[in-house]
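ok trying this again, last paste got cut off
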Amino acid sequence: MFALIFILTGCNKDAAQYKDEADKEVNGIIDRLWQDDFGPKTNYKIADSLESSNDSPVELVIPSGAMSLEDAVYIATNNNRRYQAEKEAIYLKALDLTLAAHQFAPRYFSESGAGYAKNINGEAIDAAGNVGLTRLFASGGYLTTDVAFAWADILTGDLRSGLSGIFQAALTKPLLRDSERKILLENLTQAQRDTLYQLRLFGRFRKELTVSVITAYYNTLLSYEMLKNARQNHDDLKETFELMEKMAKVGRLEKHELAEAQQDILKARDIFIRQQNLCNQTLDEFKLILSIPPSTVISLDTEKLSVIAAKSLPTPAFTEQQAVAAAVNRRLDLLNEADMISDAERKIKVAAEAFKARLDLTASTSSVTKRTSASATTNSVGIELDLALDRKAERNQYRKTLIALDQAKRNYQESCDITALQVRTAFRKLTESAGVRDVQLKSLELAADRFNKTSLLLQYGRSNTRDILDAQEDLFDAKNAAAEALVAFTIANLDFYKDAGVMEIKEDGMWNAKHLSEKAVAEKSAAKRPRKETASEETIENWLKKLTTQ
């Protein structure tokens, strides 16, 4: 009856309940491991295909009016396919962690069966089953218990009917090899570290996604700005042609100069058509980043470029050296590389443990009960010894872990160098783009003034057709160059703050730059070893305490 009740209570859950249990446990793990450096703890939970991907049910709505930059970032963080894959990667790592922790929890098992038999001695029906548990302790002990029973009802013949049972329990405690607590907890520790690493990568990815969405948004705006400039250039050339045509009628302009103006109008028309096609292509590529169908009709807030043109973005208030130091200390992907050195050091200790001889203390008890006789109990205690005479495989594994540590150190140093190069490059690009922006804005101002003056001179007959057409072409080029410079400077700001590791993602997916002072940068050295894992050990200890109460 006990076995039957145990089996029924363990099997009466449906698939949805198991799924809910997994979600609850995984989300609890993520909540415990989440750190402030990862950004706001929002929009990280996975959902079924018909549910919202956010923490609370939302319906993804495409704005009917102009899509703002904030709208674009929000849509991407809730709809981007790569974003969903990154959230699933966190979930799967945490799911593996639940299994690694489960090895230290009581694990129950049960088997049962029934049958009918007939031979020359008679016929009978019988049933048999067992139920028990196994338990691995963090101290190295391994406990297994088993209760088995058998029942037979003899229908015919001389065989005996009755119920019999067996209780068995065995405990094994390592005294040498695998007796150290940290060695036994290594798989659990590594599983937790892997989950933490994935959370860091997710935090880094959110910054990269925000930058890519904003970059695509501004590049799309740039295409439309250049389309507007192409349309304006075409219209201005037509107005100039009409003025020249009137001047030609009164003999103030040669007619062959009109043909030159007409050619420029046709060229401007060709530029407009090509730019119109480029706008549509850029907009479709932007929709791909948002993971919305290309056929979806959207419009962007084209006034955004005017806003950044009027609002001068400040350059960072810290030096290139400070930015490099901040990146080495704050970049989440680089922190992973640093902590992998600690992982490699632990693996060396685990491999060295395999050289020890195995000396296990064993104890067991068993009790057999039959209906026709008194119960018989047997107790035993003993020692098992393995002198470790053949350790070729263990030797090779140990040597591999030493090499792996050297590789981890080199990988970390290489990552530091690559990060420094990225930051230095981004800083130079930011400085360059700031200078180019100022030059192009000044060039636009001069080109507009030159065009206006040349137009007046043309009306008074003091300039020719080529002068006004050249001034118009230079003005068109200056408008495009100024728009490109503004967008390039804005994107260079984003890339720099992202590469320097001082970009903070807000709950709505947008960003701001973290204030960086010399004192804050100097708190940590760029080439220091990874931090101690006291937080990880404390988390694991709390976990094991919880398991012991189950």
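PB: full thing came through this time. The two ends are 23 Å apart (CA to CA).
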